[in-house]
Amino acid sequence: MDGDEQAEDPPDVSVQDQGGDDGKGQDEPPKDEASVRWIVELAAVVVVAILVALVLRTFVVATYSIPSGSMEPTLQIGDRILVNKLSYHLHGVDRSDIVVFSTPPNEACAGPQVANLVKRVVGLPGEIISLKDGNVYINGRFLPETFLPPDIRHDTYPGPGGNAYSLDHPYRVPAGDVYVMGDNRPDSCDSRFWGPIPQSAIVGKVDMRIWPPSRVGFF
User: What phi and psi values does residue 199 have, to the nearest 5 degrees?
Assistant: First the structure.
């Protein structure tokens, strides 16, 4: 309330009433100013949200689409997966983890070149991996692979000959590497074809299928 208005008030108006009127009049900003403030606050929220999303995508999680059938039936063409990029900064790689990793430079399988591949970890650093009667053995012990479909559970065979990692013979996984294969063993181009991958090439661990809605689930 300005000085003129105070001078015209009748003498019986209480101080408390005057104080309430003054506060209301002074606290309400002009409509134009309020609109500008709302726009600025909204813009700030949007910018922060975008920055958080970028940080999450760069350092924490990412989504990928499955382009081929090498991981069927676990992952099917068109599935979208959520990859945890922090996982292996907190603990080591485990057997049976499904991982996304940079495509090996010597990958020469049929089909369009892609930046990343997704496979399952079968052999860990220092382990000896071998095949017998279509089954995988680790350090001479049979490896139960219950995640494989029953009809192909015993259909893991060597890749093209001429390389130690093709599993024509037992192969020791080098330190710092992991040996990966697709769940669709008869139709997967994997470490049997181009060797083990460095753990440093792993983008992250596949934690969840987020699409399609009927098949959403964790791994």
Answer: -60, -25
Pick the catalytic residue: 68, 119, 191, 205? 119
Show Cβ contacts of residue 74 under 8 Å, excluding neighbours closer than 6 positions.
98, 120, 147, 183
Best CA proximity match to 152, nearest among 167, 138, 134, 136: 134
Provide the whole-model pTM: 0.76
Task: Dihedral sign for Cα 212, 216, 218, 219, please.
Answer: negative
190/102 Cα distance (integer angstroms): 13
- Kindly give the residue spans of alpha helices, DSSP state H, lying in 9-97: 15-27, 31-55, 87-90
State the first-to-last Cα distance of the chain, in angstroms, to the nearest integer: 66
| 141 bridge partner residues | 138
Judge whether residue 18 has pLDDT over 50: no
Asked if residue 3 has pLDDT above 70, the reply is no
Torsions phi, psi of 86, nearest 5?
-90, -15
Amino acid in the structure at residue 2: D
- Mark whether 119 is an active-site residue: yes
The pLDDT-based confidence of 26 (bands split at 50, 70, 90) is low
**DSSP character at residue 77:** T
Contact between 107 and 117 under an 8 Å Cβ cutoff? The reply is yes
Catalytic residue among 68, 70, 130, 188: 70
| 35 in active site | no
